[in-house]
Amino acid sequence: MGASVDDLIRAALADRDPDGPSRWRAIAALQERGDLETFTAARRLCAGATAAERVLGVDILGELGCDRPYTDKTIPVLRYLAASEDDTSVLYSVLIAFGHLRDPRALPSVIELSTHPEVTVRYGAAYALPNILGRPADPTGLAALRRLAADPDEDVADWASLGIALAGGHADDVRRQVLDP
């Protein structure tokens, strides 16, 4: 039998590096479980006292279970954080999770954060938007991508430009919207 949910959470929180291998091994093990116990623990972390706890909760929820069985319960949690959170590392993780979940219900939150003053948040929005535009692609989401494609930060602009190119594959009318604003 593998480690408990609590043990995996403690291991992830012990690794202070947000990209640390121990942290991500523990997160991957939690995501693979894909069960209600893990969902409940991750949701609880999203209300944690520290940004590290909230980021961990979001990172778990973003890819929990191979078929994302808790998406309907996860989207409201992430949308709440998107609207109420001040910490940019949490907002970035929320946006990446939205992108992984590929759910158009996240679109209003991502559009709102696409104008954030912090580059890491706009980068997260540029990553998320192409994944949640819907089919046919939402024109307001495409407008946000166009705005991000002109961002002064090169990485943000590159991701948004890629997103526009990917959105062009959704439908011919999307291509016209992107090319002829």
UniProtKB/TrEMBL annotation:
InterPro entries: ARM-like, ARM-type_fold. It holds the Pfam family HEAT_2. It comes from the Bacteria. This is HEAT repeat domain-containing protein. It comes from Acrocarpospora phusangensis.
